[in-house]
Design goal:
498 residues, mainly alpha, 19 helices, disordered N terminus
């Protein structure tokens, strides 16, 4: 039992820190492996196509001997197939999120999380390393592996959000989750570093390094992660003062975590008896029931629009910078990191502000409005690296920040709200629904971006991003109105009391 102490961090123990770090680095390793595939596409394309032969060079005899392993006639066909693999992965990932969330609420979250991490590592090793060592190239085999990879990776995000939701109560959740959701951006940076450090030996070694590290991370999680405070006899407590006659401090939708908190002292985490834990064991919620929870569908649809924009920057930003400004590919890769930096800061700051207000929707609405302006500014950015870095950081702040907030803190709010009537086993299911819907939007967006760019140019792509960002704002507008009205009524009530 942790000793009582004052301050924001006094409610947390070393168990909270371990849960934070293990879930954080679980998704860091997953995103690092995902980023590796993006970073080695050029090398894969070269390996899958015939070498360009000079007319004066001696002919190979027979020609079929040295080209029998080549999948495609030229690099353009190989690039199209790599793009198709991205779409296949995102769609299978989206479908898997709907299923894995339900599974996570019914099985031990630690088992599901480790299965996703270790299984995905094995698939990536087979895809990128083993096939190259064996010189085995087959389109259908690659597609099947990438479908399986998407399904396995989909098990990770709902589980880590559910574990974080179990350990961290609503007080400070926006700040904690905003800081924690930097895991995706940190994973992108780590993946770029790991891939570039061994790429000179062959792309298969990039897959080897990231898959081995990810598998090792899964083993550490299996033996070290506690999925809930109840596993060590703790009950979550919220040291933040509560106003029982007002819901102004309740983020998004009031939850019944306060009922749990009444079981323990206001300043301490206490020991709960095993019999009491068995009696209060919650039952899992169904998929359709989770979809009907207040706020789930509006935020899911809003996230579909927003994740489309966010993932388009993830996949297309280096390509855009190289093509639009004629910069070297490595230079564009380094500059694109500023978008991730902006997203890290944005998620943390906006989560902290939403905690202070006790509401999420107003913070999201303001950020999305400013995001539309930042997209206009970035689309007209000059050929200057410093200005582009600043504009990228600002754009990442207003797009990556809300994206992190919806996928983490708001998903946890939605999974622990009052409408559940005592059933807390909805965190993974709700997270899967929100992120799954967002991933469907992101998958469809990658095709639309390439289509719009080829037909109309990059400026129309940015107009498309602005429309999608506005769509996110439209979907959360009813929630925004309700929360603003609640804040107004609370302020009037306090004024009359004075």
């Amino acid at each position: 039992m942790s000793p009582p102490c004052d301050g924001f961090l006094s409610q947390y123990t070393h168990h909270h820190l371990v849960a934070f770090l293990l879930t954080f680095f679980s998704y860091v390793l997953l995103h690092a492996s995902r980023k590796t595939f993006s970073n080695v596409k050029l090398s894969i394309s070269a390996q899958w196509t015939p070498s360009v032969q000079n007319d004066s060079s001696p002919a190979f005899s027979p020609a079929e001997t040295w080209e029998d392993n080549k999948l495609f006639a030229d690099s353009e066909d190989a690039t199209l197939f790599l793009g198709a693999l991205d779409t296949i992965f995102l769609f299978s990932y989206a479908v898997g999120l709907y299923v894995s969330g339900v599974i996570g609420d019914r099985l031990n979250l630690r088992y599901v999380l480790c299965c996703g991490l270790c299984g995905s590592a094995v698939v990536e090793f087979v895809f990128g390393t083993l096939t190259e060592w064996l010189q085995f190239y087959n389109i259908y085999f690659y597609c099947a592996l990438w479908v399986l990879n998407g399904l396995l990776q989909s098990a990770v995000w709902p589980c880590v959000v559910a574990v974080m939701g179990n350990w961290f109560g609503k007080s400070g959740r926006g700040f904690v989750f905003g800081l924690w959701s930097a895991c995706a951006s940190v994973g992108n940076i780590l993946g770029a570093f790991l891939a570039s450090s061994v790429l000179k030996y062959g792309y298969e070694y990039a897959f080897l390094v990231t898959s081995v590290v990810q598998f090792a991370g899964g083993v550490v999680v299996f033996f070290g992660l506690l999925t809930s405070p109840k596993e060590v006899g703790l009950i979550m407590t919220d040291l933040r003062p509560r106003e029982r006659d007002s819901d102004s401090q309740r983020p998004l939708i009031s939850d019944d975590e306060e009922e749990e908190e009444e079981l323990c002292d206001a300043d301490n985490c206490t020991i709960q008896s095993q019999d009491e834990e068995m009696e209060t064991s919650p039952t899992p919620i169904g998929f359709c029931q989770a979809c009907c929870l207040p706020g789930v569908l509006p935020y899911s649809l809003a996230f579909a629009c927003l994740k489309l924009v966010n993932y388009s920057f993830f996949f297309w930003l280096p390509f855009y910078l190289s093509r639009n400004f004629d910069w070297k590919e490595a230079e564009s890769d380094r500059l694109s990191v500023w978008y991730d930096v902006g997203g890290i800061v944005g998620g943390t700051v906006q989560g902290l502000i939403s905690d202070f207000l006790g509401k999420r929707a107003p913070v999201l609405a303001v950020s999305l409005l400013l995001a539309m302006g930042s997209l206009v500014g970035f689309s007209h950015s000059p050929n200057d690296r410093v200005i582009n870095a600043v504009l990228l950081a600002v754009t990442g702040f207003f797009i990556g920040g809300p994206s992190s907030l919806i996928s983490s803190a708001i998903s946890a709010d939605l999974g622990r709200q009052e409408a559940l009537r005592g059933s807390h086993d909805a965190l993974a299911t709700v997270t899967g629904i929100v992120d799954g819907t967002g991933s469907i939007g992101a998958a469809a967006g990658q095709y639309l971006v390439s289509l719009i760019e080829s037909k109309l140019g990059w400026m129309c792509v940015f107009y498309f991003f602005i429309v999608m960002t506005g769509g996110s704002l439209v979907f959360i507008f009813p929630l925004l109105v309700r929360e603003v009205c609640t804040m107004w009524r609370d302020n009037r009530g306090r004024t009359h009391q004075l």
